[in-house]
Amino acid sequence: MAKVFISLICVWVIACGVETCFLPSSLYVPVPETIPVGYQVTKVHAAACDDNSVQFRVQDTRFRIDSDGTVVALAPVSMATGGRTFSVWVQDKNGAESEMEVHLVRRKAGQGILKRIKRRWSPPPLHMLENVQGPFPYELEKIVSDSAAKFDVYYTISGPGVDKHPTGLFSIERNTGRLSVHRAVDREEFPHFEVLVRVFDRLTNRETDIPLNFTILVDDVNDNAPQFQELLKFTVPESFAGQVVGKVLATDRDDPCTDHVRIKYTLLSETNLFSIDGETGVITTNNANLDREVKDKYLVIVKIQDKLGAPNGLSNTATATITLSDINDNPPTFRETSYKATVEENQIEKLILRIPVDDKDQINTPNWISKFVITKGNETGNFRIDTDPSTNEGLLYVVKPLDFEQSPKINLEISARNEAELNGTSATWASIPVEVTVTNVDEGPEFTAPIVYFKVKENTPNGTLIGTYKAIDPETKSSNGIKYYKDKDPASWVTIDRANGDIKVANTIDRESNFVKNGLYNVTVKATDGSKTGTGTVVIQVEDVNDNKPQVGPGELVICEEDGASGSVIVAAEDKDQHPNAFDFTFALAEEDEDKWSLEYLNGTARLLKQKTALPRGLYEVPITINDLQGFGGVQTVTVRICQCRGGVCLAQQNSVTLGPYGILTLLLPLALLLLLFLLLAFFCSTKMGGMTIDEGDSGGTLLKSNTEAPGDEVDASLIKVPPFGNEQTVKGSVKGSMVDAGWLGNKSMSTIGVQGTHETDMYKSGITTSNMHDYYSSQYGNQLNMQGNQFVGGGMGVDSKYLTQDSSALKTWQTNGRCLNQKLGYMATAGDGRYADDIVHAYGYEGAGSAAGSVGCCSDYDDNENLDFLNTLGPKFRNLADVCKKT
């Protein structure tokens, strides 16, 4: 079995094709119950390692591993609870890391020093070649268990390739343990197989050894050519050598542990322009003469071959497309060596020349778009040059007028550039000369200067010569025949002589005028030769004269009373003149005021006016002499009010209200309405009102109507007999629903029935009461008066007894017209044709609701033109007015 183990290791190392540093999968080490610090646990031995680059590392921080593989304890480790396990890794420059598990086992009592334990039933992986042609089956290996020396055994196998996909690939001879392969296998599909081998006793069918997980590695055969990963499309700037074009990416399905995947890259075309790195596949330019303007695209054949390009290696080819991108290696060039242009003088914003250029760079890129610059001849800024975006031409404009008399010809130099800077070329920007010819045009007169300044003192006498403003003809250089006139003179302060341009004062010049700004006054003057006109500006610098006195502002000054202190107020003056004709001012009080007031300096234009003594509240006029710096001035009267203040405002002023016109109208409107009301009352009260009685106790504010028709029949008071009064309560009449109010006396009018006096009759004297009134009237008038409930009913008109007991006015009414009235009402109620049956006054109980003016039923029969219904809306307060009419 040991021989099998060694032979398998050798086969595995040789088959891999390269030396790979590796460790056994596990190691069991007996150690004391407590491992002290510095204890040498074991020494790890790695196989097939490069001694110069081998590196060990350990996982457990309680241990370290030296460069020779010695594992040393860095801290005390107790083994009382059982074994411990940690991992060790080894790696050199030839391959990946290899891992081994180190199992620490507590040493039994009396056990000697460390001793290697024979490892059983654990061979390394088996190897087989892919795509073997046969004959099949062939023996791959013979597996032998150490237990075969003691037992009569047989072997079984299971796993992928046996009873799992791909089934039937492997088999084991039951009695001998020979492992066989039955067909070819593709490594790229099945790189390895993990199978389980077990051994049993024939007699008992019990396993005589632990199951073996056995690995079968499929060794690679170079049966896959390398493949390109993507399309080969690259872009590189023109004109540069050594520029990276791109990298060719390729893959190979063969075993990465072999040369079968080590690819070599080569170019099969355009090798004079491009090159490729054989190991990395990076393509670069090797020629600086790549010119996009000559050829902008190249097709290069690329070859990839495995086994580092060995003759027996597999290969593949593809075509790489390399596109050259543009750089600004071509400046714009002019089509002509020089240009000429012609323009009339005095023209502006005029296109005078188009300048075409050519550029080989890519169109509509910053490398192609031109930028034109006037490098010489435009010091005065008369020209501008732009670029036409569609044609890339230069556009030369005149932006300021040219003067033929000054410069009939102008020489310019124009340079053409690009938006991008030049790159990859030794060329420079090109320039050309441009000759501009200015043609003459008949021009108008020109003033000797566009603007002329004259100094003039204000208040200069009219007719004073200010100055002369001349113009000349640009062609003749003469002023002959030129006429002058004003164009703008806002204040009409000057005149100009039409023949010679003399400017004189026409009206008083005032520096303080609104037409003067910062002491300057502008006049626009024009000159004409008959066909053309020139314009100039005269600026008059108005010099100040001391013609304004210092003035105190309008309005009154307020001094607020203060307990125990003298009041004061600031007096400030203003002078429209300039310094030194203005401040500093001098202030002086009149002699008679010096005992009351004093002045205290504040600044050059103001003083503090203070009380010397306590003065009563009121308005004071204080004369103060104020002079400017030159002594020019006079007396200024300052109005000062002394008062109690709140917030700096006199209380009287604070509470005062000023009414505007609309406020006054608002106050007058009620007076006008009241006047109109009196006029209406005068009109209605002009009729005979009789003896209207208004009860202020119970009426509820009702208004009784009175007709304005002709007077009714007079009634003889002697015809009415009234029993004498007793001591019982007298009968009072009521305004509401009473016969007194109705006032019927022989016709349908209500206006002439009323109280005609205060005569006492026999009825009042006889002591008639509510209880005996019915008997009295029954004896006097028979059936004309009937008692129903507590009311008298006569001819359809009722009088409530409770009202008859409340007011003596009813008795007075009965005194003058009771009998006649009841006779007439009885007659009307018994009329056969019922003519007056409904046209009588009915009694209505007042229930405290409804119109404040009451109701009079259907008893009004006056003409519609004299309709007085509007009086119902005047309210209870109309009672007082009714009293006025009654007294009248």
Helix content: 10-25%
Contiguous uncertain segments of 5+ residues:
1-19, 110-120, 688-704, 719-771, 776-808, 857-865
N-C termini distance: 160 Å
Computed Rg: 69 Å
Strand order in the largest sheet: 1-9-8-4
Structural class, by secondary structure, is: mainly beta
- Major sheet details: 4 strands, mixed
Q: Roughly what fraction of the amino acids lie in strands?
A: 25-35%
Annotation keywords:
888 residues; mainly beta; Immunoglobulin-like; 8 domains; 4-stranded mixed beta sheet; 33% strand
Would you give an account of this structure?
By secondary structure, this protein is mainly beta. The chain has 8 domains: 105 residues, Cadherins (Immunoglobulin-like, Sandwich); 93 residues, Immunoglobulin-like; 99 residues, Cadherins (Immunoglobulin-like); 107 residues, Immunoglobulin-like (Sandwich); 98 residues, Immunoglobulin-like, CATH 2.60.40.60; 105 residues, Immunoglobulin-like (Sandwich), CATH 2.60.40; 29 residues; 200 residues, no CATH class. Helices cover 11% and strands 33% of the residues. The chain contains 9 helices and 57 strands. It has a 4-stranded mixed β-sheet, with no helix packed on it. Strands 10-16-15-12 form a 4-stranded mixed β-sheet. The longest helix is centred in the C-terminal third of the chain and has 25 residues. The N terminus is likely disordered.
